[in-house]
Structure to design on (466 residues):
């Protein structure tokens, strides 16, 4: 199958420095940018490491997102069995089914609709910071700000009672942790699905004016409403709304504190927070391995033949540090103007909630550093609990004083 | 110079609107792109180019 006789590298590789991709990424990208690796289930898959090739693969219909297919390259052991007999969600669909399904909901996430949420998000951020200031120092920024802000926002948007947030925060943390056993992961999936099923069943009686309620009304009018499909969508949005923005709030705060000149430029108004957010997204690329695909029709990428049935991992973090696309790629530079990063993926599956994430991050950093100009770390960076064991990178805690 | 959108390819990510709201809007219904000005001039030409380059589904093109 492969032309290389030496044993394939093991994947995923560990991040040895919290601010850098695994060292192997650069080596692979420089030497053999499309190469075979061995993934946890024992089989091989291609890794794609150049920005140009990653964009190509993610926008090519010969590479399928069907996560239930037995040949799909799964990096989390037990994830496929846990999702085998359930209704597939947007991230596991291919065109034309995906195109139709995404269009049913994407109107909820347009730039204009998200902009209308700005005052409420600002209020949530203000309230969270008020609470943190009223408490003792040092405070854990993860508990005080990173987790509650996106959680409150997605709960209000979907119409999920925030009172239940401890339950689904705990469950989603188990789902994305690579080290938990399969039975625990499966139980976490099942419990959140059951929760969502019961919630949606209640909403069916008299659909409220929230995202899930509006979907019920809209899909019923079109004659296509099925509860199982909405449960999958609600599940996906709740999970995605929890584990992504939260980690970017923590990591973004950390990287700004470590780069005081750039933070000063932001605070003086000389730098744009939106541009800084794009650079943070590129610099950390926290969902590096979400963009796996299965080749379903023979293809050639960068001169390398990829056969139907082979798994492909389009590594966003390698692409986002590709010097061809981003000069001096390992430097954090808020003036870079890095709009072409692939931290939200690329192609038809590019993050549905990206504009919500951008707005939450922008409001958080603007508000946090203007209200607490003396904010500083209360621990050594080397002692911080980075999420080396999770499929979404981030921090378990971030002690700060002000 | 003409700005063209293939709404069949569009996935409603909104990157174009984020780049230049004077050139692009999104349908309230399915989020797909609406071109507000298909003949950009001056500074808007560069903005149109950026929008073309960041569009995740390559639904935008510029005919020079």
């Amino acid at each position: 199958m492969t032309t290389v006789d030496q044993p394939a590298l093991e994947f995923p590789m560990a991040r040895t420095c919290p601010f850098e991709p695994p060292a192997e990424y650069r080596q692979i990208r420089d030497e053999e940018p499309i190469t075979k690796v061995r993934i946890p289930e024992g089989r091989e898959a291609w890794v794609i490491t150049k920005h140009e090739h990653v964009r190509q693969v993610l926008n090519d219909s010969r590479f399928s997102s069907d996560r239930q297919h037995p040949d799909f390259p799964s990096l989390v052991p037990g994830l496929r069995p846990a999702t085998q007999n359930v209704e597939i969600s947007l991230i596991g669909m291919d065109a034309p089914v995906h195109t139709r399904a995404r269009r049913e909901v994407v109107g909820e996430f347009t730039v204009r609709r998200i902009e209308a949420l700005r005052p409420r998000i600002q209020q949530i951020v203000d309230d969270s910071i008020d609470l943190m200031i009223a408490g003792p120092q040092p405070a854990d920024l993860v508990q005080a700000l990173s987790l509650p802000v996106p959680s409150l926002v997605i709960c209000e948007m979907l119409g999920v009672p925030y009172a239940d947030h401890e339950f689904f925060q705990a469950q989603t943390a188990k789902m994305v942790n690579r080290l938990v056993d399969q039975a625990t992961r499966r139980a976490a999936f099942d419990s959140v699905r059951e929760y969502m099923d019961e919630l949606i069943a209640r909403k069916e009686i008299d659909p409220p004016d929230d995202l899930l309620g509006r979907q019920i009304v809209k899909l019923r009018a079109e004659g296509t409403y099925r509860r199982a499909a909405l449960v999958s969508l609600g599940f996906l949005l709740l999970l995605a709304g929890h584990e992504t923005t939260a980690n970017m709030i923590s990591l973004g705060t950390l990287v700004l504190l470590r780069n005081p000149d750039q933070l000063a430029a932001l605070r003086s108004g000389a730098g744009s927070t939106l541009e800084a957010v794009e650079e943070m997204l590129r610099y950390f690329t926290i969902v590096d391995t979400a963009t796996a695909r299965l080749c379903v029709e023979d293809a050639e990428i960068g001169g390398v033949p990829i056969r139907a049935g082979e798994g492909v991992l389009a590594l966003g973090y390698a692409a986002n540090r590709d010097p061809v696309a981003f000069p001096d790629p390992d430097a954090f530079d808020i003036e870079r103007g890095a709009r072409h990063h692939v931290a939200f993926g690329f192609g038809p599956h590019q993050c549905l909630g990206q504009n919500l994430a951008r707005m939450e991050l922008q409001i958080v950093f603007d508000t946090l550093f203007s209200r607490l100009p003396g904010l500083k770390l209360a621990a050594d960076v080397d002692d911080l609990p980075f999420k080396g064991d999770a499929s979404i990178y981030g921090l378990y805690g971030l002690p700060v004083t002000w | 110079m003409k700005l063209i959108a293939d709404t069949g390819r569009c996935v409603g990510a909104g990157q174009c609107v984020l780049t230049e709201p004077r050139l692009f809007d999104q349908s309230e219904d399915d989020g797909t792109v609406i071109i507000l000005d298909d003949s950009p001039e001056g500074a808007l030409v560069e903005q149109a180019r950026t929008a073309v380059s960041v569009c995740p589904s390559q639904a935008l093109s510029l005919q020079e």
User: Anything to note?
Assistant: The interface with chain A takes residues 11-15, 17-19, 21, 25-32, 50, 53-54, 56-58 of chain B (CB under 8 Å). The longest strand of chain B covers residues 2-5. The beta strands of chain B are 2-5, 24-26, 33-35, 60-63. The CA atoms of residues 21 and 36 of chain B lie 9 Å apart.
